[in-house]
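Structure (tokenized):
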């Protein structure tokens, strides 16, 4: 238990340091990062995930990254908040939608030099999708017949569409099912409230 606590605290410190570095180098991202609560979620999250209010992370994964890669990881999760990917999927195929979101975010992070591209796991990065909308990337992936690929992080489905009302997620390890502290689907009213919170934070 003490080893886990030490590992978790080390990961938390790395994430806090990454947020400080973002405040100094990329203030817009840094300010958004500060509003997310850091939540250790190694029991169901193999890398990281976000729900607009919480930053879920796997301690071992965070500790395996160097400081600049942690900045990239934080930036990646913020990208999902900025673009509201966990709220915009509608009836699209989950895995392809998640791939599209990662292509958009990872290119922006690389272009703006927000941290260093993560090499610990294979990420989706293609200059072809520079400045594309997520919906357009999705359509291109769908039309091309591209096989589903794993994404950097776990993607939460807060709408619950297509999951019989249950929270679903796709990403590293395709972590479906329940886990301690894992977010549940939101009602229409709750989704609207979250969208308003995200818009206010960006303004």
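Design, position by position:
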């Amino acid at each position: 238990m003490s080893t886990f606590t030490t590992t978790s605290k080390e990961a938390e410190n790395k994430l806090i340091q990454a947020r400080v570095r973002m405040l100094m180098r990329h203030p817009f991202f840094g300010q958004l990062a500060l509003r997310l609560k850091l939540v250790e979620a190694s029991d169901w999250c193999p890398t990281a995930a976000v729900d607009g209010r919480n930053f879920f992370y796997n301690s071992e994964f965070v500790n395996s990254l160097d400081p600049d890669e942690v900045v990239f990881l934080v930036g990646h999760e913020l990208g999902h908040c900025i673009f509201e990917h966990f709220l915009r999927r509608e009836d699209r195929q989950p895995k392809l939608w998640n791939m599209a979101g990662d292509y958009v975010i990872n290119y922006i992070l690389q272009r703006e030099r927000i941290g260093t591209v993560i090499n610990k796991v294979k990420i989706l990065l293609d200059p072809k999708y520079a400045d594309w909308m997520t919906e357009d990337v999705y359509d291109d992936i769908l039309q091309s017949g591209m096989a589903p690929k794993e994404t950097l992080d776990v993607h939460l489905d807060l709408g619950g569409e297509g999951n019989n009302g249950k929270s679903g997620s796709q990403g590293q390890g395709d972590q479906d099912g329940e886990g301690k502290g894992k977010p549940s689907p939101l009602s229409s009213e709750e989704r609207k409230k979250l969208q308003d919170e995200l818009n206010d934070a960006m303004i």
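Reviewer-requested clarification: Residues 7 and 60 are 7 Å apart (CA to CA). The longest strand covers residues 37-40.
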